[in-house]
Amino acid sequence: MKTNRLGRTTVEVTQLGFGGGPLGGLFAPLDDETAAGALAAAWDGGIRYYDTSPHYGIGHSERRIGEFLRQQPRDSFTLSTKVGRLLVPQAADGKMDPAGFHVPATHYRVRDFTRDGVRRSVEDSLERMGLDRIDVLYLHDAEEFFDDALRDGYPALAELRSEGVVGAIGAGMYDTVMLTTLVKEADVDVVMQSGRYTLLDHSAIDTFLPACEERGVSVIAASVFNSGLLAVPRPGEGAYFDYEAAAPDVLERANKIADVCEAHGVTLPQVAMAFPLQHPAVAGIAVGMRSAEEARRNVKSFAVDVPAQVWTDLRAAGLIR
User: Fold this and answer.
1) Pairing mode, if any, of strands 107-111 and 16-19?
2) Which ranges constitute the DSSP H helices of 91-233?
3) Catalytic site includes residue 174
4) Which CATH number is associated with domain 3-246+268-307?
5) Radius of gyration (C-alpha) of the chain in whole angstroms
6) Which one of the listed residues 49, 50, 56, 138 is annotated catalytic?
7) Could you give the CA distance from residue 62 to residue 110 in angstroms, rounded to a whole number?
8) Which residues of 160-189 are buried (b: 16+ CB within 10 A; e: fewer)?
9) CA angle, 99 then 60 then 150, to 5°
10) Where are the domains of the chain?
């Protein structure tokens, strides 16, 4: 699988990355055996970039990814995690995590972008994963704390990079306006942008992607299926778009795109995975995977060579910019 370098660093990622959200029990419970199967199938398929976060299942995703990656040579993979939430132990008392992950509420989250908070978060993550280093470190979901993240969090990440603790730094967020500010005002290497450069949402192309290209900042595109709408060949009623039920006009547009895909012998998910990589700033995509079957399906879809005429026809029909 092809790899790309992040910014001006020596850190490389495979163009298809493993998104660790589902391993935290996102949307549905997940047992350790199934999670391990997903990781093994992704590895067998050539994926060598794994992304996780303390937020994902209050540590479950980090633990599961760490258990798998400890079995592999350390220089054979790239690992990213995130800072901005510290996990504080508490008695679960039978309660489940209120943040949408199907795990017992053994911890609660405290938002913290201070220097001490960032360093403690890194130490906690390394302990949970049982690994000696993190390759890429992101400020996570800083939209409501952006001033703190830019003022305190970014310098803390830059310090860790200068010390050699991490190889590349950046942020993982939805908001392209804030990410553009970060790219322009800070010396970051990579940003993980979620859901704003997909077949159905091109808003990242206005100012965010040009700023990344100008500054030499790499982009990892996440949520390329927009919460599931683009993950099936023919989305129907009940499909989700950006975590909500898809509006009729969005559903109609997705199916028009599917018409063009089918005319060229490819599927909507295959084209959705290939789309972000058409932009020169995009180094890779991160796709959430929760089972071996899902991982194998994603690897197979990603390997499909999408004909150039697909992009031409989608542009001609006004379906992509």
Assistant:
1) unpaired
2) 115-129, 146-148, 154-162, 176-185, 208-215
3) no
4) 3.20.20.100
5) 19
6) 56
7) 17
8) bbeeeebbbbbbbbebbebbbbbbeebebb
9) 65
10) 3-246+268-307
Tell me the C-alpha distance between 45 and 52, whole Å: 19
Q: At what angle do helices 292-302 and 32-44 cross, to 10 degrees?
A: 20
* Cα Dmax for the chain: 57
- Write out the two tokens for 308: 């150039």
Whole-number Å distance between alpha carbons of 6 and 168: 7
**How far from chain centre, in Å, is Cα 35?**
17
Estimate the crossing angle of helix 308-316 against helix 248-263, to 10 degrees: 140
One-letter identity of residue 80: S
CB atoms within 10 A of CB 27: 16
Per-residue pLDDT of the chain (321 residues; tens, 9 = 90+): 999 999 999 999 999 999 999 999 998 999 999 999 999 999 999 999 999 999 999 999 999 999 999 999 999 999 999 999 999 999 999 999 999 999 999 999 999 999 999 999 999 999 999 999 999 999 999 999 999 999 999 999 999 999 999 999 999 999 999 999 999 999 999 999 999 999 999 999 999 999 999 999 999 999 999 989 999 999 999 899 998 999 999 999 999 999 999 999 999 999 999 999 999 999 999 999 999 999 999 999 999 999 999 999 999 999 999
Fill in the amino acid letter for 222: A
Sign of CA dihedral 107, 111, 113, 115: negative
Give the single-character DSSP code of 150. I
DSSP 53: -
Check if the beta carbon of residue 291 is closer than 8 Å to that of residue 36: no
